[in-house]
Amino acid sequence: MAQAVSTLCNTTQLFVLFFFSGLLSHDLYPSCPYSLLRPGVGVCSQLLDRLRAANKWFGASIPFFVCELKAVAAYKRGFFCGDTSITYPYIESEAIPNSMLIAGGIMITGLTIAVGECCRVRFIGVHSRAFVRNLYVSCLYKELGSFLFGCCVGQSLTNMAKLSVGRLRPHFLTVCNVTYASLNCVPGTYISDVVCKNETSLDEKIVEEARKSFFSGHSSFAMYTMLYLAFYLQARLSWRGARLLRPLLQFMLVMLAVYTGFSRISDYHHHPTDVLTGFLQGGLTAYWVAFYISSMFKTSCPGMSPTTLSLESPLSSQQTVC
C-alpha cells in the first residue's frame, strides 16, 4: 500500500511539473515568428516578448533538471521469480557513452544548422525585420533555439517516463548482486521488494539507474537530433547538385540514430521495446518541432521580404527568411 501511495505521489509530481512547464512555455504568438517588428509595438513590449520566448527553454527544462537532481525518486517496481529478462550481465563499457551521445548529437546538428544559416545570410541575401538587427544572430537564435527547445522537451519526457514507470534494466539482478537461488523464491511468484547487496555508494547509484529502463534516452535523443537534422537538410539543402546528396545524408543520419538505439540492446542496458519507444518519441518530437515550432517549413509571413530560393527542392516555396 505504501509503495502504491509513493508511486501515485511521484507520478503526480511529474505531471504537475510538466503542466507547469507547459504554462511557462505556452506560445502566445500567431504563425509569424515572434521576432518580427510589428507596427505600433514599442521596444519594451518587444523585450517582454523575448522574455516570454525564453520561457520556452526554461519551462521545458524544468522536469529534466528536477529528475537529474534526484528531486523525485524512481518507482521501485518488483519482478517475477524466474524472469530471465533481468538476469543479463552488466557491461560497464558502453558502445556509445553519454558524453559521446550528447556531444555528437548537439555538435553535429548544431554546427550544421549554424553553418547553414550563416551561408543563407551570406550568399542568399536574407532580409529580416527582427528586433536584433544582426542577421546572423537573428537566424541562429531562431533555428538553434528551436532545436534546443526540442532537446529540452524530449529529455524531460524521457526522464518522466523513467521515474514514473521504473522498469528494470536487463542487468538489474547482476548490479543488485542477488540471484533467484539466494532469494529462495518459487518460480512465477511476484517479488515486490528486494534488498540489494551493495558494498559502496557507487553500487547504490548503479542500482538506482537500473530501475530506469523505460524508455531509452539514448535512442530518443539520437533519433531526435539526427531526424531533426534530416528535416533541416530537406528544407535548406536545395541547390541543384543535392538531389542525390541530400537523401544520402539523411539516410546516414537516420541509420546512425538506429545504430545508437540497437547498441543499447547489445549492451544489455535496455529491452527492445524501450528502444523502439525511444525511437518513436524522438521522431515525433523532431517532427513536431521542425514543422510546428521552427520556421524552416513555414511560409513567409506578411511584411517579410522574399528571398531568392532554388526551385530544385519541392519544399523551396515554403522556406522562409529570418
From TrEMBL:
Domain called Phosphatidic acid phosphatase type 2/haloperoxidase: residue spans: 144-290
Compartments, as annotated in UniProt: Membrane
Topology term for the membrane: Multi-pass membrane protein
Pfam families referenced in this protein's UniProt entry, alphabetically: PAP2
Underlying gene: ppap2d
GO molecular function: phosphatidate phosphatase activity
InterPro entries according to UniProt: PAP-like (IPR043216), PAP2/HPO (IPR000326), PAP2/HPO_sf (IPR036938)
Protein name: Phosphatidic acid phosphatase type 2D
Keywords in alphabetical order: Membrane, Transmembrane, Transmembrane helix
Residue spans crossing the bilayer: 214-232, 244-263, 275-294
SUPFAM superfamilies according to UniProt: Acid phosphatase/Vanadium-dependent haloperoxidase
GO BP terms, alphabetized: phospholipid dephosphorylation; phospholipid metabolic process; signal transduction
Coiled-coil intervals, chain numbering: none
Any one cellular-component term (Gene Ontology): plasma membrane
Family, as annotated: Belongs to the PA-phosphatase related phosphoesterase family.
